[in-house]
Amino acid sequence: MKRTVASAWVRWPISLIVSATNPCFHRNLCVSESESYGTSSGLNVLSMQVKKDCFIVRIPQLIAHRGYAKAFPENTLLSLDAAVSAGARFVEFDVQLTADAIPVVLHDDTLLRTAGHEVSIFDIESVNLKHICVNEAARFGPRFPEAQLSTLENIVLWLKELPEVTAFVEIKTQSLQRFGIQRAVAQVLRVLESVKAQCVSISFEPQVIAVARENNISATGWVLPAWDLVTALKLNPEYVFCNRNLVPSGWKNFAEYPWNWVIYEVVEIKEALEYAALGVEFIETMAIGEMLQHPLFRAADHRQQQASVISPMIDDKGKG
Question: Distance between CA atoms of 251 and 43, rounded to whole angstroms?
Fold first, then answer.
């Protein structure tokens, strides 16, 4: 497996770097040629090189966690489309199965949190999905009445029109337990077939990686249920997803591992840059719009467009 180098480097004037991260950040910067710079405690490190009057800052790629979930109902076509409109080239969404094993885009196995109905998705036939509104009224009130529960098939039709977008598709543990790993994965991959070159199959369940590979999915990801890098090395996925809260305090050895790291639940620019400095290629965030509007990320996107950088997919020969 070849490691994908996804992050970008951006020239940034020293006079602007303080306001771009933290008003107090400059106090602990140690500036010398051809080194990394930052504070000495925890993750407070920015990977920079000095060139004349500029820092060269490493910028991670951003993944839209459940779409633009900070501002729109999660896991809806509305949220995913808003993320892409904001500039996202990577999106993540969750998949559960209905009573008749039709994949739908949904995080929980019940509709209580997103639709206000205390009913399991496993008790709903796919023919009854049409009028289910998942507008997260507890968060957004009566807004977004158009936020309908989407089938995975509908999302695939959307993805076909966006060949530059890569989707990380998480098959949820509840559906794997309900229908069995082989059947659940087969159902999801059958729907993804026409866009599988754009998709990365991910899961908390390790066996999903093997089953996905058996079905010719070339890129897979494991979501760490705990800090278990021994198992991750055995699985050898292309991506390892880790909640920011699982990372041991002061741990800095991301670059020593052969996969692409994805740290999720990050919403602050400074933290994203700190992780990038330590070798993390991807940051997954619900605040995709706000993050992408930051000048550093806008500059990185501009540089990547000029260089015609494409989505970091891994083809059947294992090339990045």
Answer: 8
**Nearest 5 degrees, angle CA 62-CA 71-CA 60?**
10
Span 174-199, pLDDT tens digits: 999 999 999 999 999 999 999 999 99
Backbone angles phi, psi at 38, to 5 degrees: 165, -175
User: In degrees rounded to 5, what are phi and psi of residue 255?
Assistant: -65, -10
pLDDT of residue 50: 45
DSSP structure string for 200-246: EEEESSTHHHHHHHHTT---EEEE-SSS-HHHHHHH--SEEEEEGGG
pTM of the predicted protein model: 0.84
CA 271 – CA 203 distance, rounded (Å): 25
Give residue 180's identity as a one-letter amino acid code: G
284, pLDDT greater than 50: yes
